TrEMBL record:
Limits of the VOC domain: 120-235, 249-366
Organism: Streptomyces uncialis
Record-linked Gene3D superfamilies: 2,3-Dihydroxybiphenyl 1,2-Dioxygenase, domain 1 (3.10.180.10), 3.30.70.100
PROSITE patterns: S_R_A_B_BARREL, VOC
Protein name stated in the entry: Metapyrocatechase
Segments forming domain Stress-response A/B barrel: 2-95
Transmembrane segments annotated in the record for this chain: none
InterPro entries, per database record: Dabb, Dimeric_a/b-barrel, Fosfomycin_Res_Enzymes, Glyas_Bleomycin-R_OHBP_Dase, Glyas_Fos-R_dOase_dom, VOC_core
Pfam families for this protein: Dabb, Glyoxalase
Length: 403
């Protein structure tokens, strides 16, 4: 391993905002340079030597990775335009070292000093032309439980969380349309940091939907580059017990978002909302994760238009996935993509789609959850856009037909 350290002192005339902005940008480096391991950045608290105000230390697997980072165009541009104007003095060291073997099995996971993102997905809000038919579909074919219903809206839940789907009665629509997605945040501190990131990015901070305000402690909303509302909040209300339904989802895992603004959308979720990239199908789809460590709590797909393409629910077992598939076949519910074995998330799933009810519904088993250690150290794979990299059960590189 190579450890690379950088100690520095800001120029006296660099104001607080300029300093914070540069420090914030440094904190995005582990996301921007996936070869970085064990990134730390802190203020100098030494009483012996106050020459430098801060030190940053990052590890790389080897000298090549370090040199690739230092020589990259984006790093050189950062040094030229952002760094030099505000830094008075710096010192750099790089040295080789060997990681100490763990002293005990089951040692604590690495302490994370990176900025945290949301905890995980909680719900989607979908406008539908026929609420009763949608409720019937979600109860029978997805296994959700209806908890509350008025003429205007309905809440359905999967497990103890207050709801996984909120339906809005919209008779003017012919197809269902997802207007918002909700993500819980683990603490007020993280929520505050995300709020600050949104403001720093020059985006408008919106209020939570009024009903949602009563279902959590604190939160705000922001529109992603496609206009999809993302609601972020702490302490989402939950029930004492899960529904007494044997075949039901355990969790709503992710939305899959198609977008004509691929780079902009990725930048928003990765650098403003601090989702972590897990894998890329190059030029097609990027999978991003939250702090609940599911392989992805969000997928972003390059497309010619924006829509929420599917919502993924995790079932208790493959047996339950297959029982739901049997129900779909029995009732003639349209199966948009039959049993697939996803390479990215190692899950086995099928998809149903009736456009009246909103996006596709993916029911899966065994969605990968990273260990705490993997969550801090995982390096996203860059996989070519080949159907076998999306479903490992595809027989050939041109077998796109069944997606
Ligand atoms: Fe999915």
């Amino acid at each position: 391993m190579i450890r690379h350290t950088l100690s520095f002192r800001f120029a006296d005339d660099a104001d607080r905002a300029a300093r914070e902005s540069v420090l914030d940008e440094l904190r995005t480096f582990p996301d921007r340079y996936p070869a970085m391991r064990g990134f730390v950045l802190g203020e100098n608290i030494s009483t012996r030597d106050r020459t430098f105000t801060h030190t940053m230390a990052v590890d790389f697997d080897g000298q090549d990775d370090l040199l690739a980072y230092l020589g990259s165009e984006s790093h050189e541009r950062f040094v030229r335009t952002r760094w030099r104007p505000v830094i008075a003095q710096q010192a750099i060291t790089s040295f080789e070292f060997t990681e100490r073997a763990p002293l005990l099995e089951g040692r604590n996971p690495p302490v994370s000093t990176r900025p945290h993102g949301p905890y995980g997905m909680e719900y989607a809000r979908i406008e539908v032309p026929d609420m009763q038919e949608t409720i019937d579909f979600l109860q029978y074919h997805v296994g959700l439980q209806l908890e509350q219903r008025t003429d205007e809206y309905a809440y359905l839940r999967a497990d103890i969380e207050h709801h996984a789907i909120e339906l809005i009665h919209s008779p003017a629509r012919t197809d269902g349309w997802t207007t918002a997605v909700g993500f819980s945040v683990a603490s007020e501190e993280i929520l505050e940091q995300l709020h600050k990131n949104v403001l720093d990015a020059g985006l408008e901070v919106l209020e939570l939907q009024e009903r949602q305000r009563a279902l959590c402690d604190n939160g705000f909303a922001v529109k992603d580059p496609n206009g999809l509302v993302v609601e972020l909040f702490t302490e989402f209300q939950e029930y004492a017990e899960p529904p007494h339904i044997e075949i039901r989802p355990l969790d709503l895992v992710h939305p899959f978002i198609a977008t004509a603004k691929f780079e902009e959308t990725l930048d928003f979720y990765q650098h403003v909302l601090r989702f972590l990239p897990s894998d890329h199908v190059v030029g097609s789809t990027t999978f991003l994760r939250c702090e609940d460590r599911y392989h992805h709590s969000l997928a972003v797909q390059k497309n010619t238009e924006h829509y929420v393409a599917h919502l993924c629910f995790a079932m208790k077992s493959l047996d339950h996935v297959m029982r739901m598939r049997a129900r779909a076949l029995y009732k003639g519910a349209p199966i948009a993509s039959d049993i697939v074995n996803h390479s990215a998330s190692t899950s086995i799933a099928f998809y149903m789609h009736d456009t009246r009810f909103g996006p596709r519904y993916e029911l899966c088993d065994d969605h990968r959850v990273f260990t705490p250690e993997e969550h801090e150290t995982h390096r996203p794979r860059r996989m070519p856009a080949d159907p076998r990299n999306i479903d490992v059960w595809r027989p050939a590189s041109d077998d796109w037909g069944r997606f």
